[in-house]
Design brief:
Elements (H helix, E strand, L loop, with lengths): L7 H9 L8 H9 L4 E4 L6 H11 L3 E5 L3 H12 L8 E4 L5 H12 L5 E4 L1 H4 L2 H7 L4 E6 L19 H8 L4 E5 L4 H10 L6 E4 L7 E7 L3 H10 L5 E6 L2 H13 L4 E4 L5 H12 L5 E5 L11 E6 L6 H8 L9 E7 L1 H11 L4 H19 L4 H8 L16 H4 L4 E3 L1 H13 L6 H8 L5 H5 L16 H13 L3 E4 L5 E4 L1 H8 L5 E3 L25 H18 L3 H4 L2 H10 L4 H5 L5 H22 L17 H12 L4 H7 L4 H13 L7 H7 L2 H14 L5 H7 L6 H16 L1
Parallel strand pairs: 1-6, 1-7, 2-4, 2-5, 3-4, 5-6, 8-13, 9-11, 9-12, 10-11, 12-13
Antiparallel strand pairs: 14-17, 15-16
Helix pairs in contact: 2-3, 14-15, 19-21, 23-25, 23-27, 30-34, 32-34, 33-34
Length: about 725
C-alpha cells in the first residue's frame, strides 16, 4: 500500500476539520497503513467510519468498502463528497443503480478519481464486478458491519461468509473489519472467517455513558409513546417496530397527534425511503418509525430518543439501535416496551428454521429477556454481555438507568446463591438456566423427566420460591462471574473458579428482586379505543350527568341520546376543554360535539380551573379510525340500499358483527339510514312502538332491558336495528 500523505493529523484536519483523533483511531489507521490486517470493535458513534475513510483518501488506489445497507452507503457517500470538490471521490455500486449510473461509477474508479467504492456483498459476488475489480488498483478492503459474518451476530448474512475467497481472488491487500457490536464469540467468528486471526484488535469501551436505559411493561403502549414524545417536542427520535404494518400504524398514530413522523421499512419503494431519510436528516420530520429487521443506516448525531415499541431479537440489535441516540454526546433516552408475548412472536419466527439456527435464536432471545427483566444496573448487564466490566456505583453513566434511579427491594441471598451454584455444579455444562429453575422448583417438565431430575437431591430444594425468582438469581450470578454460559453449547451453565470459591466459603450476597412483567396487554394499536389508564373523577362525573339530564329535559329526549355513559366517564378522565378535544372522546364525534358540546366544555373548563387540575390532555392520544376502508364501504353500501346480509357477506362478517360496526359508526356521530332494511323485518306499527320506547320509557340504551320490557315480542337483532335508527335520528 502506497501512502500519499503520512502526516495523519494534518490529513485529518485537511479532510475532516478535526485537530485530534478520538480514542484508538490514530493507532487503527497507522496499523492499516503499515499493511496489516486490522479489526476494529467500536460502538456506534465512536468514529469507526473515519478509520477507513481517512486511509482511503491518503492512499493510492481505491478502497473497497463492503456494506450491507443501501441507505448507509448513500449516507456515507454523501458525507465523503463534502470533503472534495469532485463527487467522484466516493461512489456506491449496488442494485439501485441503472446501467448509465454503473458506467459512470466504473469510469471514475478506472480513472483513479474514486478513493472509496461502497459495494453490497451481493454485488461483490457477481462475476462482472469481480472481473472489473481485478483490473484496478485497490488500497485495501474494509468490511463494515462485520458481525454479519457470524451466525451468532444479530444480523447474519450468508453472503458475508463468501467474502474471503472473493477478496483473495481480486487482490492481496490488507483487510480492516469493523463492527459496533461483537461479543467474544462473534469476534472470534469474524477473525476466523476472514482469515485474519493475526489481526491486531482495537476494542473501544462499549459504554455509551450519555444514554439512559429504561424498560417498561407493554401496557397502554400507544398512549405512553405519545406522552413521551410530546414531553420532548421538537426533538428527534426513532421508534422501532417488529412489522411493517405496525410501522405504518404507529407513524399514522403520531401524525394525527400532531407529531411529524414518517415510516421507514423495506416495503416502501427506494425513492420513498430515500426521501423519508433525507427529511429526517434535514429536520423536516422529528420521528422515524422503522422495522427492527430492516435496519436504518441513518447517521444523525442529535437523535434524542430511541423507542422500541417491540422488543428486538437480540441484545446486539438493541445495543446497535439504541446507539443511534446521542451520538453527539448529548441526551439520549432509550425506552423499550417489554412483553413476553413479543418474545413468543419472535420464537414463532424461528420455527421451521434449521435446528442450530433455532438454538442460536433462542439463546439470543433469552439474553433479551434477562436484560428486560433484570433489576440490576442495566448498563452493567449490557456491558457484561459484551465482555466488559463496569462499576455500577462510580462508572461513567452509572446512574442513567431506570433500575438505578428506582431501585428494587434487596434481600440477603447467600443461601440462594450457594444452592443455585451447587445445583449447576452437580451437572456442570449440561443444562441451561430454565432447567435449573425448573429443577429447584420441582417442575415435572419433559426435560426434567428425561434427565431424571426428580431423583436429584436438588429437585424442589428451592420450592419455597417461584421459577421467576430463580431466573433472577441465575442472571445476577452470571453477571457477577460465578457461573458462565457456554456459548458453543447454546448457553449451558458452568461454575467458574469464582463460583467454586463462593461454594467453599459462602459470604453475604445482595440479591435484587426483579421486575414483574406479567401485567402487560401487548395488544395491537387500539384504534378508536375505549378509555383507560386514569381514575374516574366521580365529582365531575356527577356534575356532567346532571348537566346531561337538564339538557335532555329541555329537548325532551333521553339523556343517553346526548352522550352515553362511557363517553361521560372518559370526559372525567381526559378533561376536554376545547371542541377538538371533545371530538376525541369515544362516542362523541363532530356532530355531537357541535350539537351538544359547548355547555359540557364550559363546565369542565371551569371545574379544571377551580380545582387546579393538572390535565394530561396534552399527552392523550388521538385515535385513528380503525378499518376506515371498511367503515366507508359499509356507509356506501347502506346508501345504495344493499341488503345487510349481502354487506356482511362481502366483508366476511356475521350479521351481528356488521350490526356492531354500524352501531359504532352511529355512536361516533355519523348519520345512517337503514329504513329500507327495517321495513323488510318490522311493520310500521312495530317500529313506532320500539321507537317510542327509546324516546319516552328507556332510562338507558341497554338492549337487554328493552328485550325484557317487550317480553320477547321482538328479537334482540330487531331491537338493535331500531336503536340504530333512533340514535342516528335523535343523537346525530
Amino acid at each position: 500500500m502506497n501512502t500519499i500523505k503520512t502526516d495523519l493529523k494534518a490529513a485529518l484536519l485537511e479532510y475532516f476539520g478535526f485537530d485530534s483523533f478520538k480514542g484508538e483511531q490514530e493507532k487503527v489507521i497507522a496499523n492499516l497503513l503499515s499493511n496489516k490486517n486490522t479489526f476494529v470493535i467500536m460502538p456506534t458513534g465512536g468514529g469507526k467510519s473515519l478509520c477507513y475513510q481517512l486511509p482511503a483518501l491518503i492512499c493510492e488506489g481505491t478502497a473497497i468498502v463492503v456494506s450491507p445497507l443501501i441507505a448507509l452507503m448513500k449516507n456515507q457517500v454523501d458525507a465523503i463528497r463534502q470533503v472534495s470538490n469532485n463527487d467522484g471521490i466516493a461512489h456506491f455500486l449496488n442494485s439501485s443503480l441503472n446501467k448509465g449510473e454503473i458506467t459512470k461509477v466504473k469510469n471514475d474508479v478506472t480513472s483513479g478519481l474514486t478513493k472509496l467504492l461502497y459495494v453490497a456483498p451481493e454485488s461483490l459476488t457477481k462475476q462482472e464486478n469481480i472481473s472489473f475489480l481485478t483490473n484496478i488498483t485497490i488500497s485495501f478492503f474494509a468490511i463494515d458491519e462485520a458481525h454479519c459474518i457470524s451466525e451468532w451476530g444479530h444480523d447474519f448474512r450468508p453472503e458475508y461468509r463468501r467474502l474471503k475467497p472473493i477478496i483473495n481472488a481480486i487482490d492481496d491487500v490488507p483487510i480492516i473489519a469493523l463492527t459496533a457490536t461483537a461479543t467474544p464469540k462473534v469476534q472470534n467468528d469474524i477473525q476466523k472467517n476472514l482469515g485474519m486471526t493475526d489481526a491486531i484488535v482495537y476494542k473501544a469501551s462499549f459504554n455509551r455513558s450519555n444514554l439512559f436505559y429504561e424498560v417498561k411493561p407493554k401496557k397502554n403502549v400507544q398512549k405512553e409513546i405519545i406522552r413521551f414524545i410530546k414531553s420532548r417536542i421538537g426533538k428527534s427520535g426513532i421508534i422501532y417496530c417488529l412489522s411493517r404494518k405496525k410501522v405504518e400504524e404507529v407513524a399514522q398514530l403520531l401524525q394525527v397527534n400532531g407529531i411529524s413522523s414518517l415510516p421507514y421499512h423495506a416495503g416502501l419503494d427506494p425513492n420513498t425511503r430515500a426521501k423519508h431519510q433525507d427529511m429526517f436528516l434535514m429536520e423536516e420530520a422529528d420521528v422515524i418509525v422503522a422495522t427492527i429487521a430492516f435496519g436504518m443506516g441513518i447517521d444523525k448525531p442529535d437523535v434524542r430518543f430511541v423507542i422500541h415499541h417491540d422488543i428486538p431479537k437480540s441484545l446486539e440489535s438493541y445495543y446497535q439501535e439504541t446507539g443511534r441516540a446521542g451520538r453527539d454526546g448529548g441526551e439520549g433516552h432509550c425506552l423499550a416496551f417489554y412483553s413476553y408475548k413479543d418474545i413468543e412472536k419472535l420464537e414463532n419466527f424461528l420455527q421451521g428454521k434449521p435446528l442450530a439456527e433455532q438454538e442460536i435464536g433462542q439463546q439470543l432471545l433469552q439474553e433479551v429477556v434477562a436484560f428486560s427483566e433484570t433489576s440490576i444496573n442495566r448498563r452493567k448487564f449490557l456491558l457484561h454481555y459484551f465482555g466488559e466490566e463496569f462499576d455500577e456505583i462510580n462508572g461513567p453513566g452509572a446512574s442513567l438507568c431506570d433500575n438505578s434511579q428506582n431501585p428494587k427491594e434487596k434481600i440477603e441471598g447467600k443461601k440462594y446463591v450457594k444452592l443455585a451454584l451447587e445445583c449447576v455444579k452437580s451437572v456442570s455444562g449440561k443444562h441451561k438456566v430454565k432447567y435449573f429453575a425448573h429443577l429447584l422448583t420441582g417442575k415435572q417438565t419433559a426435560e426434567i423427566k428425561t434427565y431424571k431430575g426428580p431423583e436429584s437431591p436438588y429437585f424442589n430444594s428451592g420450592g419455597e420460591e417461584d421459577e421467576h425468582f430463580w431466573h433472577a438469581v441465575y442472571r445476577q450470578i452470571v453477571v457477577q462471574g460465578f457461573v458462565k454460559k457456554e456459548i458453543e453449547s447454546y448457553g449451558t451453565l458452568i461454575v467458574t473458579k469464582k463460583g467454586e470459591e463462593f461454594i467453599a466459603a459462602p459470604r453475604s450476597f445482595t440479591l435484587i428482586k426483579e421486575h414483574d412483567f406479567s401485567d402487560t396487554d401487548d395488544k395491537d394499536i387500539i384504534l378508536n379505543p375505549k378509555v383507560g389508564g386514569s381514575a374516574l373523577d366521580e365529582k365531575l362525573f356527577k356534575m356532567l350527568k346532571e348537566l346531561r339530564k337538564s339538557i335532555a329535559v329541555k329537548k325532551n329526549i333521553p339523556p343517553f341520546v346526548i352522550f352515553q355513559d362511557p363517553s361521560i366517564e372518559e370526559m372525567t378522565m381526559q378533561y376536554p376543554i376545547t371542541t377538538e378535544e371533545l371530538q376525541n372522546i369515544s362516542g362523541v364525534g363532530t356532530g355531537k360535539s357541535q350539537r351538544y358540546g359547548l355547555p359540557f366544555i364550559e363546565l369542565i373548563k371551569k371545574y379544571v380551573e377551580e380545582n387546579n387540575i393538572d390535565r394530561i390532555q396534552d399527552f392523550v392520544m388521538k385515535s385513528v379510525v380503525n378499518k376506515s376502508g371498511q367503515k366507508v364501504n359499509i356507509i356506501t353500501n347502506i346508501d345504495r340500499k344493499l341488503p345487510l346480509e349481502d354487506i356482511a357477506k362481502s366483508q366476511n362478517k356475521k350479521i351481528e358483527d356488521l350490526i356492531n360496526e354500524i352501531e359504532n359508526i352511529v355512536a361516533s356521530g355519523t348519520k345512517i339510514n337503514i329504513d329500507y332494511h327495517l321495513n323488510t323485518v318490522l311493520d310500521e306499527e312495530a317500529q313506532e312502538e320500539i321507537y317510542d320506547y327509546f324516546l319516552e320509557d328507556a332510562e338507558t340504551d341497554n338492549v337487554q332491558e328493552a328485550f325484557d320490557e317487550f317480553e320477547g315480542d321482538y328479537s334482540e337483532e330487531e331491537l338493535r336495528l331500531m336503536k340504530i335508527k333512533f340514535m342516528s335520528e335523535m343523537a346525530n
